[in-house]
Amino acid sequence: QVLDGAGLDVDFHLLSPKGETLVFDERKSDGVHTVETEDGDYMFCFDNTFSTISEKVIFFELILDNMGEEGQDQDDWKKYVTGTDLLDMKLEDILESINSVKARLSKSVQIQTLLRAFEARDRNIQESNFDRVNFWSMVNLGVMVVVSAVQVYMLKSLFEDKRKSRT
Protein backbone atom coordinates (compact mmCIF):
# COMPACT_ATOMS: atom_id res chain seq x y z
CA GLN A 1 0.00 0.00 0.00
CA VAL A 2 1.31 3.45 -0.89
CA LEU A 3 1.00 5.64 2.19
CA ASP A 4 2.44 8.91 0.94
CA GLY A 5 3.77 10.43 -2.25
CA ALA A 6 2.50 12.04 -5.44
CA GLY A 7 -0.27 10.07 -7.07
CA LEU A 8 -0.21 7.33 -4.41
CA ASP A 9 0.75 4.74 -7.05
CA VAL A 10 3.66 2.37 -7.64
CA ASP A 11 4.52 -0.62 -9.83
CA PHE A 12 4.87 -4.05 -8.17
CA HIS A 13 6.63 -7.17 -9.50
CA LEU A 14 6.77 -10.63 -7.92
CA LEU A 15 9.09 -13.24 -9.45
CA SER A 16 9.26 -16.95 -8.63
CA PRO A 17 12.57 -18.77 -7.96
CA LYS A 18 12.49 -19.90 -11.62
CA GLY A 19 12.32 -16.27 -12.79
CA GLU A 20 8.67 -16.41 -13.85
CA THR A 21 6.52 -13.33 -13.23
CA LEU A 22 3.81 -14.31 -10.74
CA VAL A 23 2.33 -10.85 -10.14
CA PHE A 24 2.74 -7.60 -12.07
CA ASP A 25 0.74 -4.52 -11.05
CA GLU A 26 1.15 -1.16 -12.75
CA ARG A 27 0.47 2.09 -10.90
CA LYS A 28 -1.64 0.62 -8.11
CA SER A 29 -2.12 2.27 -4.73
CA ASP A 30 -2.71 -0.99 -2.88
CA GLY A 31 -3.10 -4.70 -3.43
CA VAL A 32 -3.28 -8.09 -1.77
CA HIS A 33 -1.72 -11.12 -3.44
CA THR A 34 -1.84 -14.78 -2.40
CA VAL A 35 0.69 -17.10 -4.00
CA GLU A 36 1.30 -20.83 -3.65
CA THR A 37 5.01 -21.10 -2.97
CA GLU A 38 7.73 -23.60 -3.72
CA ASP A 39 11.25 -23.91 -2.33
CA GLY A 40 13.59 -21.13 -3.38
CA ASP A 41 14.13 -17.40 -3.25
CA TYR A 42 11.37 -15.11 -4.43
CA MET A 43 11.97 -11.56 -5.55
CA PHE A 44 9.54 -8.70 -5.16
CA CYS A 45 10.13 -5.15 -6.30
CA PHE A 46 8.35 -1.86 -5.79
CA ASP A 47 9.19 0.29 -8.81
CA ASN A 48 8.86 4.08 -8.88
CA THR A 49 10.90 4.84 -12.01
CA PHE A 50 7.91 6.41 -13.78
CA SER A 51 7.88 9.13 -11.09
CA THR A 52 11.51 9.83 -10.24
CA ILE A 53 10.80 13.31 -8.87
CA SER A 54 8.46 12.30 -6.06
CA GLU A 55 9.36 9.75 -3.41
CA LYS A 56 6.84 7.30 -2.01
CA VAL A 57 6.25 5.76 1.41
CA ILE A 58 5.27 2.09 1.07
CA PHE A 59 3.73 -0.29 3.61
CA PHE A 60 3.91 -4.00 2.88
CA GLU A 61 3.43 -7.12 4.94
CA LEU A 62 4.67 -10.57 4.06
CA ILE A 63 2.58 -13.32 5.66
CA LEU A 64 3.89 -16.88 5.52
CA ASP A 65 1.36 -19.56 6.47
CA ASN A 66 2.17 -23.13 7.52
CA MET A 67 5.94 -22.81 7.71
CA GLY A 68 6.81 -26.32 8.92
CA GLU A 69 5.15 -25.95 12.30
CA GLU A 70 2.55 -28.63 11.77
CA GLY A 71 4.32 -31.93 12.30
CA GLN A 72 7.03 -31.18 14.82
CA ASP A 73 5.43 -28.83 17.36
CA GLN A 74 2.12 -30.62 17.64
CA ASP A 75 3.62 -34.01 18.48
CA ASP A 76 6.17 -32.75 21.05
CA TRP A 77 3.63 -32.63 23.88
CA LYS A 78 2.62 -36.29 23.37
CA LYS A 79 5.92 -37.62 24.79
CA TYR A 80 5.09 -36.03 28.16
CA VAL A 81 1.65 -37.59 28.43
CA THR A 82 1.34 -40.69 30.62
CA GLY A 83 -2.28 -41.54 31.07
CA THR A 84 -5.41 -42.88 29.57
CA ASP A 85 -6.90 -42.18 26.17
CA LEU A 86 -9.38 -39.83 27.83
CA LEU A 87 -6.50 -37.66 28.99
CA ASP A 88 -5.06 -37.70 25.48
CA MET A 89 -8.39 -36.55 24.07
CA LYS A 90 -8.61 -33.68 26.55
CA LEU A 91 -5.07 -32.57 25.74
CA GLU A 92 -5.80 -32.73 22.04
CA ASP A 93 -8.92 -30.62 22.58
CA ILE A 94 -6.88 -28.09 24.57
CA LEU A 95 -4.23 -28.04 21.84
CA GLU A 96 -6.88 -27.43 19.17
CA SER A 97 -8.33 -24.57 21.24
CA ILE A 98 -4.89 -23.02 21.74
CA ASN A 99 -4.08 -23.29 18.03
CA SER A 100 -7.45 -21.76 17.17
CA VAL A 101 -6.86 -18.84 19.54
CA LYS A 102 -3.33 -18.41 18.15
CA ALA A 103 -4.61 -18.32 14.56
CA ARG A 104 -7.35 -15.83 15.39
CA LEU A 105 -4.95 -13.63 17.35
CA SER A 106 -2.50 -13.67 14.46
CA LYS A 107 -5.28 -12.72 12.04
CA SER A 108 -6.40 -9.83 14.27
CA VAL A 109 -2.82 -8.54 14.49
CA GLN A 110 -2.62 -8.60 10.68
CA ILE A 111 -5.92 -6.74 10.35
CA GLN A 112 -4.86 -4.12 12.91
CA THR A 113 -1.57 -3.59 11.07
CA LEU A 114 -3.46 -3.13 7.82
CA LEU A 115 -5.86 -0.68 9.46
CA ARG A 116 -2.88 1.29 10.82
CA ALA A 117 -1.52 1.51 7.29
CA PHE A 118 -4.86 2.81 5.99
CA GLU A 119 -4.95 5.34 8.83
CA ALA A 120 -1.41 6.53 8.04
CA ARG A 121 -2.26 6.99 4.35
CA ASP A 122 -5.46 8.89 5.19
CA ARG A 123 -3.60 11.05 7.70
CA ASN A 124 -0.98 11.98 5.09
CA ILE A 125 -3.73 12.97 2.66
CA GLN A 126 -5.48 14.96 5.39
CA GLU A 127 -2.28 16.84 6.32
CA SER A 128 -1.62 17.60 2.65
CA ASN A 129 -5.15 18.98 2.27
CA PHE A 130 -4.74 21.00 5.47
CA ASP A 131 -1.55 22.63 4.14
CA ARG A 132 -3.18 23.35 0.79
CA VAL A 133 -6.24 24.95 2.45
CA ASN A 134 -4.02 27.10 4.69
CA PHE A 135 -1.92 28.27 1.72
CA TRP A 136 -4.91 29.28 -0.38
CA SER A 137 -6.59 30.92 2.62
CA MET A 138 -3.51 33.11 3.07
CA VAL A 139 -3.52 33.96 -0.65
CA ASN A 140 -7.21 34.84 -0.40
CA LEU A 141 -6.57 36.99 2.68
CA GLY A 142 -3.75 38.82 0.89
CA VAL A 143 -5.98 39.51 -2.13
CA MET A 144 -8.74 40.83 0.15
CA VAL A 145 -6.32 43.20 1.93
CA VAL A 146 -4.97 44.52 -1.39
CA VAL A 147 -8.51 44.98 -2.79
CA SER A 148 -9.67 46.83 0.34
CA ALA A 149 -6.59 49.13 0.22
CA VAL A 150 -7.29 49.91 -3.45
CA GLN A 151 -10.95 50.61 -2.66
CA VAL A 152 -10.04 53.02 0.15
CA TYR A 153 -7.57 54.81 -2.12
CA MET A 154 -10.14 55.07 -4.94
CA LEU A 155 -12.83 56.37 -2.57
CA LYS A 156 -10.46 58.99 -1.14
CA SER A 157 -9.52 60.11 -4.62
CA LEU A 158 -13.21 60.69 -5.43
CA PHE A 159 -13.58 63.18 -2.59
CA GLU A 160 -10.33 65.07 -3.10
CA ASP A 161 -10.65 68.59 -4.39
CA LYS A 162 -8.50 68.73 -7.48
CA ARG A 163 -9.08 72.39 -8.10
CA LYS A 164 -6.54 74.79 -6.87
CA SER A 165 -8.04 76.89 -4.18
CA ARG A 166 -7.18 80.58 -4.17
CA THR A 167 -6.96 82.37 -0.94
TrEMBL record:
<comment type="similarity">
    <text>Belongs to the EMP24/GP25L family.</text>
</comment>
<dbReference type="Pfam" id="PF01105">
    <property type="entry name" value="EMP24_GP25L"/>
</dbReference>
<feature type="domain" description="GOLD">
    <location>
        <begin position="1"/>
        <end position="64"/>
    </location>
</feature>
<dbReference type="InterPro" id="IPR036598">
    <property type="entry name" value="GOLD_dom_sf"/>
</dbReference>
<keyword id="KW-0472">Membrane</keyword>
<dbReference type="GO" id="GO:0005794">
    <property type="term" value="C:Golgi apparatus"/>
</dbReference>
<feature type="transmembrane region" description="Helical">
    <location>
        <begin position="135"/>
        <end position="155"/>
    </location>
</feature>
<keyword id="KW-0256">Endoplasmic reticulum</keyword>
<dbReference type="GO" id="GO:0033116">
    <property type="term" value="C:endoplasmic reticulum-Golgi intermediate compartment membrane"/>
</dbReference>
<keyword id="KW-0732">Signal</keyword>
<dbReference type="InterPro" id="IPR009038">
    <property type="entry name" value="GOLD_dom"/>
</dbReference>
<dbReference type="GO" id="GO:0005789">
    <property type="term" value="C:endoplasmic reticulum membrane"/>
</dbReference>
<keyword id="KW-1133">Transmembrane helix</keyword>
<keyword id="KW-0812">Transmembrane</keyword>
<protein>
    <submittedName>
        <fullName>TMED5 protein</fullName>
    </submittedName>
</protein>
<dbReference type="InterPro" id="IPR015720">
    <property type="entry name" value="Emp24-like"/>
</dbReference>
